[in-house]
Amino acid sequence: MSAAMLALLVRDLRLAIRHGGQSLMPILFLFAVLILIPLGVGPGPNLLASIAPGMIWVAALLASLLALEGLFRPDLEDGSLEQWWLGHGPAGALVVVRLFSHWLITGLPVILVAPLAAQMLYLPAPALGTLMLSLLLGTPILSLVGGLAAALTLGTNRGSVLLSILVFPMVVPVLIFATGAVDLAADGLSPQAHLGLLAALLILAVTLAPVATTAALRLNIE
Amino acid sequence: MIWKTIKVGFHRLGSPPNFYRLCQRFSPWLWGGFFLCAAVGLYQALYVVPPDYQQGDSFRILYVHVPAAWQAMAGYVVMAILAFIALVWRIRIAEIMAMMGAPIGAAFSVICLATGSIWGRPMWGTWWAWDARLTSMLVLLFIYLGIMGLYSAFEDKRKGARIACILILVGLVNIPIIHFSVEWWTTLHQGSTIRFFGESTMHYSMMPPLVWMTIAVKFLFAAALLDRSRNEILDQDRRRRWVLEHAGVNR
């Protein structure tokens, strides 16, 4: 089983690297949104600094939606998704691997470019660490919740719009606690409580989301 | 022995023709209960209860607003129970009922938001405030719309229902988290804003119509759920023999 898990992880990462440009699209989209914000609300540093945490997080959220459509669909179309259930061991383990590789490809780069994004919107320097920590705790939740929504909409033709509608209510708490933490850090206060709650959400999502995702995928290939 | 009787009854209820007949028998009673309770409740709410000392007569909208809000939430719990039954025992009637509950719940959320907005305009001076309760009701409405959208996106109704049932159960875990996070969000950002009054601070003379209206709304939900499920079963089974027999078509 662990061989299959490793093989899937290596395959996903290799595909992402070979499709280099495509894998970077969500990051480009993130920057496109971040460039549009000053153009829309004006370049005043004070205003931008005060809305920076929320805007960076909303942009990250929208960017994460982009890559979800292709999370399981190619595997469903070429039939390899069914093999997950035909092989040895639980298919849920492969679902977890797929979600993890998805986070490595779409979530991790967001954390890495966060300093640049923070500079663009004049986020106060002390808040940068908290922003990156909140992204580190929050982006895996986006992948998990997004993966669940992708699995639910897999059998439909017009999945992508529906997918965003399904994701939106589920990520409300993530957005609240993540931006709350960064806001507090920007004001020089301790963001520990918010980050703690975000970590709790992550643990809950890691525990429950793959189970529901596996069940939804299972129903879709039946 | 008792267990066996329950099981047999359960399965008998799960058969579409039996369920259809049962709905047909119960539905008029539920509608009757609704009209009776609503008539008593609305009469009391509009004529018996004295005007509020601060809000005058405009508070009376709460007799529609609060029962609708409660039912929007209670309706979700009913759907979640049905979804659980549908997923565990694969009972088709439960799937259909869970799906048919979503538009009713969404309608109650809309009623709650609309009446709240109408009340808020003269009282708060605004149609909308980013208050915790308003926001979580809005999110609940979107969850309902998501369930309806997901169900309708599938060609195969049974498959769509089963997958939407998973979403209902996911929402059951999510809704309390959303509710409390939103509550914390507003208290952190704005301090305590104007709130709806808690029940304990409500004068006892205002209570009876609220009780009547709450019961009325429960009847309305049950009646609408049974009628909608009945229609859906009839629609889905329109080629089956029992429906044709019921409609008096001879083949």
How are the elements arranged and paired?
The complex is a heterodimer of chains A (222) and B (251).
Chain A: H1 2-18, H2 20-41, H3 45-66, H4 73-77, H5 80-86, H6 91-120, H7 127-152, H8 159-186, H9 192-221
Chain B: H1 2-13, H2 16-48, H3 62-89, H4 92-124, H5 132-153, H6 157-190, H7 207-236, H8 241-246
Helix pairs in contact in B: 2-7, 3-4, 3-6, 3-7, 4-5, 4-6, 4-7, 5-6
Structure explained in plain terms:
The complex is a heterodimer of chains A (222) and B (251). Chain A has 222 residues and is an all-alpha fold. Chain A has helices at residues 2-18, 20-41, 45-66, 73-77, 80-86, 91-120, 127-152, 159-186, 192-221. Chain A has one domain. Helices cover 84% and strands 0% of the residues of chain A. The two termini of chain A are 23 Å apart. The model of chain A has no long low-confidence stretch (mean pLDDT 89). Chain B has one domain (27-43, 59-186, 202-247). Chain B is built from 8 helices and no strands. The longest helix of chain B has 34 residues, at 157-190. The chains are: A mainly alpha (222), B mainly alpha (251).
What is the number of beta strands of chain B?
0
Structural class of chain A: mainly alpha
Give the overall pLDDT of chain B as a whole number.
85
Largest sheet of chain B: none
- List low-pLDDT spans of chain B: 189-199
One letter per element, helices H and strands E, the order of chain A comes to: HHHHHHHHH
Helix fraction bin of chain A = over 70%
Helix count of chain B?
A: 8
Instruction: Please provide the count of β strands of chain A.
Output: 0
Number of domains of chain B: 1
> Cα-atom Rg of chain B, whole angstroms?
21 Å
